[in-house]
Amino acid sequence: MAEYKGVLICGEVADGKLAAISQELLYAGRQLANALGVELSAALVGSGVNGLSREMVALGADKVYVVDDPLLKDYQGDSYVPVLEKLCQKVMPEIVLVGQTSMGRDLAPRLAFRLGTVAAMDCVLLGIDPQSKLLIQTRPVYGGSALATFVTESARPQMATVRVKAMSQAERDDSRKGEVIPFAAGLQASDLRAKVVNKVKEEVAGVKLEDAKVIVSGGRGVGGSESFSYLNDLAKVLGAAVGASRPPCDSGWVPSSVQVGLTGKIVTPDLYIAVAISGSSQHLAGCSGSKCIVAINKDPEANIFKVAQFGLVGDYRKVLPAFAQKCKELMSG
Amino acid sequence: MNIVVCVKQVPDPETPPSSFKIDSVANRVMPAAGVPPVISPFDEHAVEAALRIKDAKGAKVTVISMGKDLVMDVVKKPLSMGADELILLQDEAFEGGDSFTTAYALSMAIKKTGQYDLILCGRQAADWDVGQVGLGIAELLGIPSVAPVKKVEALDGRVKVERVVPDGYEVIEVPMPAVVTISNELGEPRYATMKGIMAAARKKPTVWTSQDIGAEASKIGKAGSRIKLLKLFIPVREVKCVMAEGESIEEAAADLALKMRAAKII
Fold first, then answer.
1. What is the C-alpha to C-alpha distance for residues A220 and A255, in angstroms, rounded to an integer?
2. Residue ranges per structural domain of chain A
3. Which of A1, A124, B114, B157 is such that its CA lies 20 to 30 A from the CA of A147?
4. Which tens digit of pLDDT belongs to each residue from A111-146?
5. Cβ contact (<8 Å) for B167 and A203?
6. Where are the domains of chain B?
7. What are the start-end ranges of the H helices in B142-248?
8. pLDDT single digits (tens) A251-306
């Protein structure tokens, strides 16, 4: 295994900029590379992405491999997997990190199997064992009810996907030096078996959940689509985004794009107000990084009170209007 | 058209957190007393997706399940919902495996079924939450995959799917054979009908061992595992919840706002 050396992170680009996960991967990758005393490489894959390579150096990469090809404009497993397979064969990293994002969830398993390894998906903690020098991979399991720690003993590379917002962001230092290396994709249009025929946006008006400082979120107990107006009214007062746990999304009360949880969005606002949410592990997986959780629930035994800093037992229909009124008073005063 | 659905029996994810216990010596979850296992919910969505295609176009739906201590009433649920056939992979040699060995065994079993057009899996299993097996099967079979998906429609020689992405969905067409993993946005799976339950009771599952599927011993179970579990533990959450109080619910609501103000949260 001596020929495998260094850490490679797989960057992501969104709307022509490095996605936040790229900075988190560069942070995590840098820590691991320092612990091992090896180089940190970054893959920058996409179309028209060359201009971002210097930024990756400034954020900590020693080498940036740029794969710039029109066929890589959007993520497709059929194009990204073979490109990264070739790149991994060239770089021969001992560790590969990918984001646990829409792209990474699809990319990492196929890439891992193609390279003869396996991925530890959705890691929240990564470290190097001081003795064995193996990558210690910690990830939530059983819907977040437990954590599990894994090692990849002999398969290489050791591969992990990293949960969004689980790591700090790398700090930019424009004086950092690094090498930018172009890498040919070598793709043909016929390689793409799956064809995207349409993209449908289901964005909700107002503050984006992922960027919101305050989120008002509703659960099964809200009872229906119309009752979400109670949450919307409070959200207006607080300048908050409105989210939901899985049941309201599955029941079609709100679009699934506002789902907070293990299989939805992971949010880390300053304030998360959970309304009529019981607090299943899979929901907490999406909001437990919030600075402050406030729970409003009829059931005093609800699990959500175990993770909340503030709580109120009562019917949200009575609580929210009075609470919103008082907040308005306090915030204007 | 032949559809294969891979399903896994798991501890009920709706088990209350207070009943969730770990055997820290054996590094495994202890079954909660009196809570029967279930088919992993996303896998049940995958069965539903297969049955919707069967309803629309006609298809043979074969369900494959691998595991030990399988409860017959649980693993037969897809049959009672309307699936045609159930294959169980049961062999001590499969035990102690990981995502790779599972995907390998399932891919060998799928090959043994003969003609397959569409393979459906849940986006991830509700126990280990990995989401690697479905895509791994596609990789091992050398066929395309789309994940995670909320709608599947069979067209001539290809499938049209709606892939869930953070800001909506993508409509994708992919030639068959293909693997598609299914997410909960598909909608509620159907209930088993009485007729279905009776028909399922009469059906005997086919049981295959590692030899039956021609699996190489070095690629299954503990021997084939590429990842090793070191430790399984329940994280400690140390939060004390301050409860708002008042004579009336409205007063309590105002008290909540005041307490949050005092803590500089609003």
1. 14
2. 7-191, 209-332
3. A1
4. 999 999 999 999 999 999 999 999 999 999 998 889
5. yes
6. 2-224, 236-266
7. 194-202, 221-224
8. 999 998 999 998 899 999 999 999 999 999 889 999 999 999 999 999 999 999 99
Q: What is the mean pLDDT of residues A201-209?
A: 81
CA distances from A304 to A227, A255, B183 (A): 20, 23, 25
- Interface contact A142-B257, CB threshold 8 A: no
Q: Which residue(s) pair with A217 in the sheet?
A: A243, A274
Residue B168 Cα to chain centre, angstroms: 22
Nearest-5° angle of CA A284, CA A288, CA A289? 150
CA distance B197 to B264: 57
Q: What are the DSSP calls for A16-64, one per residue?
A: TEE-HHHHHHHHHHHHHHHHHT--EEEEEEESS-GGGHHHHHHTT-SEE
Check CB contact of A309 with chain B, cutoff 8 Å. Answer: yes
Q: Which string of DSSP letters, residue by residue, matches B40-92?
A: -HHHHHHHHHHHHHHHHH--EEEEEEE-SS--HHHHTHHHHHT-SEEEEE--G
**Which chain A residues are closer than 8 Å to B184 by Cβ?**
246, 250, 263
What is the second-level CATH architecture of the domain B2-224?
A: 3-Layer(aba) Sandwich (3.40)
Nearest-angstrom CA–CA distance, A168 and A126: 12
Amino acid at B12: D
Q: Which residues of A touch B235 (CB under 8 A)?
A: 146-147
CATH number of A7-191: 3.40.50.620
Domain A209-332 has CATH 3.40.50.1220: yes
Write out the two tokens for A44.
């920058």
CB pairs under 8 A between A and B: 248
Comparing C-alpha atoms, which of B208, B192, B210, B194 is closest to residue B76? B192
Do residue A312 and residue B239 have CB atoms under 8 angstroms apart?
A: no
